């Protein structure tokens, strides 16, 4: 006896999403580990050297975590008020942080002792960074000034002013110890040069600036504020090169990854967007459980940390190296070969595998069409896998068994069936089968329509007719729109003015569409 052929529903499956190399790469960060801090996560910074410890500034402390164990290894609590912007030096030995009182403290990471104490700001200091030579510190304060400090002498060298509101963002040039960028809530970004002791460039971001980063080349800087991320050419006088508007709420933080080839942006909309610096296109998106205030990523892209407004910190750790998995598979393969060594080929039996068959397929195999339709109309099937129900209807129509499956039904079953038709008749994948099924339904119950008027079934048929009229009107609207677009396109090509006043046009416009049957209920 020939084997029963199951109903094929693959033709109705959705187009699979093409996975790019970036998507595959960043998806390996895996499921995050959540850690609760004592307050909103103000700033996250990774040490540039192995083992790539990361500092989390929250509340009145800066805690240093091990990315592998995800445990606190150092706890710096020598702050009287809230701490802000704890950042590592490029050798990972020193850490600088500001606080709510306007003080700037320099710590030894190993001993947690205060090495330098910079005092001079008159308002909270929210960001502090080392210069690229590691000998100076730049601090950005709500007193609208940027101060430049010398680490060796513990002296204040220069003060830069010009902002008209709080300064909550800043960065230093990765190639020059004399260039400092600052971003304020006055929407301005200023570039200061310590050699001339003045501002050498000003650009307008358009929204209060929340974060700044500078590419490794030093010639391009990127700002975040409002819902946009702007890219500027520092060597070209501040010319705006691109604007990235992928978030729908305020962008709060920026970070560079993959040696400056990828840009991360975190936002209050709970998303982390990853951009390709070469094309400024989004290559991957990471969702978070709450609004994101800060984020950091290790130099080797192995660990990503996001800080949220509710004090939760999500630590993403890249899964094991695929090479290790390949080695383990090779070991298992060699073990199986040794285990089967010496066995004759006729001694090895293929394992029997039972293929699961859908309930409606079992009914089709027995030619019980009513039961097959019932099995395909269960709520789980029609809500989650409608393509399987459509595949069954197509098979019943092919077998000319849908008439038998729909006859002698109670009104509740028929109303459920019509509801399914109304829901999916506008889906271009299902429309031909749904229209044919509706025609069969009217063939079975069309003569009894007058008797069914006023019942639930009659009301459902009226709703089906209304839906069909809406779909027909939609097709006519698309025809009119396509005609107008064709006239505009032809007029643009020929240089002749188009006639859009309802008059006759010398061009015949037609819509090439599939034949559709219009159902009418008398």
Could you tell me the mean pLDDT? 84
Strand order of the largest sheet: 1-28-27-26
Question: Total strand count, please?
Answer: 28
Strand content: 25-35%
Query: Largest sheet at a glance?
Result: 4 strands, antiparallel
Structural shape: elongated
Radius of gyration over C-alpha positions, nearest whole angstrom: 34 Å
Please give the share of residues in helix.
Answer: 25-40%
Count of DSSP-assigned helices: 11
Structural classification: alpha+beta
How far apart, in Å, are the first and last alpha carbons?
48 Å
Assembly context of the chains: single chain
Task: Report low-confidence residues grouped into runs of 5 or more.
Answer: 341-347, 496-522
Describe, in plain words, how this protein is organized in 3D.
The protein is an alpha+beta fold and 522 residues long. The chain is 26% helix and 32% strand. It has 11 helices and 28 strands. It has a 4-stranded antiparallel β-sheet with strand order 1-28-27-26, with no helix packed on it. Strand 14 and strand 15 (179-184) form a beta hairpin.
List the helices and strands and how they pair.
Layout: H1 21-27, E1 33-36, E2 41-46, E3 54-58, E4 61-65, E5 72-76, E6 83-88, E7 94-99, E8 103-108, E9 114-119, E10 125-130, E11 136-141, E12 146-150, E13 155-160, E14 167-172, E15 179-184, E16 188-193, E17 198-204, E18 209-214, E19 220-225, E20 228-233, E21 239-244, E22 251-257, E23 262-267, E24 271-276, E25 281-287, E26 292-297, E27 303-308, E28 312-317, H2 322-339, H3 359-365, H4 369-376, H5 379-384, H6 386-399, H7 402-406, H8 411-424, H9 431-445, H10 449-452, H11 456-494
Antiparallel strand pairs: 1-28, 2-3, 3-4, 4-5, 6-7, 7-8, 8-9, 10-11, 11-12, 12-13, 14-15, 15-16, 16-17, 18-19, 19-20, 20-21, 22-23, 23-24, 24-25, 26-27, 27-28
């Amino acid at each position: 006896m020939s084997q029963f052929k199951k109903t094929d529903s693959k033709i109705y499956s959705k187009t699979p999403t093409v996975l790019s190399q970036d998507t595959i790469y960043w998806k390996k960060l895996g499921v995050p580990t959540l850690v609760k801090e004592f307050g909103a996560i103000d700033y996250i910074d990774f040490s540039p050297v192995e083992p790539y410890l990361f500092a989390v500034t929250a509340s009145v402390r800066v805690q240093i975590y091990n990315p592998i164990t995800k445990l606190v290894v150092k706890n710096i609590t020598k702050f009287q008020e809230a701490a802000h912007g704890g950042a590592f030096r490029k050798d990972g030995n020193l850490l600088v942080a500001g606080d709510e009182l306007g003080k700037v403290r320099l710590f030894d990471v190993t001993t947690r002792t205060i090495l330098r104490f910079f005092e001079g700001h008159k308002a909270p200091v929210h960001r502090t960074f080392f210069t690229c030579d590691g000998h100076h510190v730049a601090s950005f304060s709500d007193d609208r000034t940027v101060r430049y400090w010398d680490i060796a002498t513990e002296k204040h060298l220069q003060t830069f002013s010009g902002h008209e509101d709080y300064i909550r963002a800043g960065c230093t040039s990765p190639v020059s110890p004399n260039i400092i960028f600052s971003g304020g809530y006055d929407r301005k970004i200023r570039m200061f040069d310590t050699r001339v002791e003045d501002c050498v460039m000003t650009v307008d971001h358009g929204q209060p600036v929340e974060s700044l980063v500078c590419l490794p080349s030093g010639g391009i800087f990127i700002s975040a504020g409002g819902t946009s991320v702007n890219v500027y050419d520092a060597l070209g006088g501040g010319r705006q090169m691109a604007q990235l508007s992928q978030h729908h709420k305020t962008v709060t933080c920026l970070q560079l990854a993959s040696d400056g080839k990828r840009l991360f942006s975190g936002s209050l909309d709970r998303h982390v967007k990853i951009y390709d610096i070469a094309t400024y296109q989004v290559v991957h998106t990471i969702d978070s459980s709450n609004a994101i205030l800060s984020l950091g990523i290790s130099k080797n892209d192995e660990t990503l940390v996001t800080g949220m407004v509710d004090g939760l910190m999500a630590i993403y750790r890249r899964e094991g190296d695929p090479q290790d998995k390949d080695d383990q598979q090779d070991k298992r393969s060699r073990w199986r070969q040794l285990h089967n060594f010496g066995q004759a080929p006729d001694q090895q039996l293929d394992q029997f595998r039972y293929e699961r068959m859908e309930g409606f397929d079992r009914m089709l195999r027995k030619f019980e069409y009513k039961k097959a339709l019932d099995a395909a109309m269960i709520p789980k099937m029609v809500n989650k896998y409608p393509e399987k129900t459509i595949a069954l209807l197509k098979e019943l129509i092919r077998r000319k068994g849908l008439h038998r499956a729909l006859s002698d039904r109670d009104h509740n079953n028929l109303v459920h069936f019509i509801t399914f038709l109304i829901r999916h008749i506008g889906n271009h994948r299902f429309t031909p089968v749904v229209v044919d099924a509706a025609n069969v339904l009217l063939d079975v119950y069309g003569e009894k329509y007058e008797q069914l008027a006023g019942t639930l079934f009659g009301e459902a048929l009226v709703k089906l007719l209304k839906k069909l009229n809406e779909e027909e009107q939609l097709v006519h609207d698309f025809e009119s729109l396509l005609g107008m677009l064709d006239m505009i396109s032809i007029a643009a090509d020929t240089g002749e003015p188009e006639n859009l006043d309802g008059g006759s046009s010398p061009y015949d416009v037609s819509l090439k569409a599939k034949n559709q049957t219009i159902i009418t209920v008398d």
